[in-house]
Fold:
Amino acid sequence: MTGATQRLYIGGEWVEPAGGHYEVINPADESVVGLAPEASRGQVEEAARAAAEAFESWSRTTPEARAAILDRAADIMQREFDPWTALARAETGAPTGIARGMQVGVGVARFRRYAEGALEPVEKGLPPQVTEAGPMGRASILGALEVRQPVGVVTCITSYNNPWANPAGKVAPALAMGNTVVVKPAPQDPLSVFRMADALHEAGVPAGVVNVVGGQSVEVGEAAVDSPHVDMVSFTGSTAVGQRIAEVCGRTMKRQLMELGGKGAAIVFEDADLDAAVMGIGTTFSFYSGQICTAPTRVIVHRSVHDRLIEKLTGYLAFMQVGDPAAAGTVVGPVISAAHRDRVESYIELGRKEGARIAHGGERPVVGDGRGFYVAPTLLVDCTNDMRVVREEIFGPVVVVVPFDGGEDEAIRLANDSDFGLLSYVWSGDSARAFRVARRLRSGGVGVNTIGRNMEAPFGGFKRSGVGRDVGSYALHAYSETQSIVWTG
Structure:
């Protein structure tokens, strides 16, 4: 894939970009992975128009026909698994295991899941209602049916941390429900998303049902959001950008699904299994080099076990091998870009200035010949809840630790004292207490003694972490409108 020149995918055709191409850089060694297309506003509008024209026929296809296309696309992704894993690794800097299992592998799994999802019932009968004679007519028995209908044209704006799982989690359920899509991938690593379009094209998706446009210009994303042909925007990214998108959507009441920032609180009580807590918290450093909104980045630990937890976390970090994502033994790869590396490092320095102590990391690691955008996994301790490093999303391999002395109420207060509420975590040997605390956390999801996720459970955030829920059947609901049909009998 190295050196490939990519075209746009509009109306079932591969189209030369009006704005030319730009280089996609491998964050591990700064080599050029390929040339990505720069769409014009007019081409984005063309893609939205093609999706609108295709909607009527696609929304009326049988669920079985939609399922068959999604299944065939998954077959093609599986067939191309190895080269597309290599591309994902090159674009994102994710270690091979992450690129295989959490990127391409999850992409395949989500297409399989929503091939099945296309066959889920979209109608539900409601209890009949007896009405007496009156201004509305004679006495009657009214039946009612709840029907889920596709929304229409969905713009899917995807994040750079996972160019397979994230777009697959939008495109597959949207298509399963009978919507058409305009996909705008993150500019840092868009080539994998075009490979997803390859799979759908080969699988026989009708022209206009799937369109992929891209570019570095803000204008590309703006056009994909404000087009009059677009009925819904599904966005994953920063809260600041999500707020701007929501303002534009509000003008014409476009539907929205937003997965935004996170600052996951991990409450560790005095009776917790500290080794399990360390394993869970430690994933922040290894998964996508901390570039994951669900990470337990804000540890709230009882003072009685604070020092032992820090000791164990520091020991765990000693085994976090930073290096070339393609090399055996690498656990932590680079962050996505030089600009992002500088941003993460500026937060580490800010933490030091705010009074935090660096218990581990803090320096810039040198890998190979010194190229690449690497950040050392960093542990900041002696933190307080008013520090910016505790309150703001860093989106890198950085964990902050805040001790508490009291009981549940204090831990909950500290955890909830945040603008974010995506995923939080509780570690305690007392299951009743852990579940009691979980119910009081202002968070869209809570892991009790685990960082694992049930992929049928609703996913989304409270507060500034987002709007709406997806994953499992909830994604099918997110990409649909609910209609009621009432009749008399």
Remarks:
- Residues 4-260+465-488 form a domain with the Aldehyde Dehydrogenase; Chain A, domain 1 fold (CATH 3.40.605.10).
- Residues 96-117 form the longest helix (22 residues).
- DSSP finds 15 helices and 23 strands in the chain.
- The two ends are 63 Å apart (CA to CA).
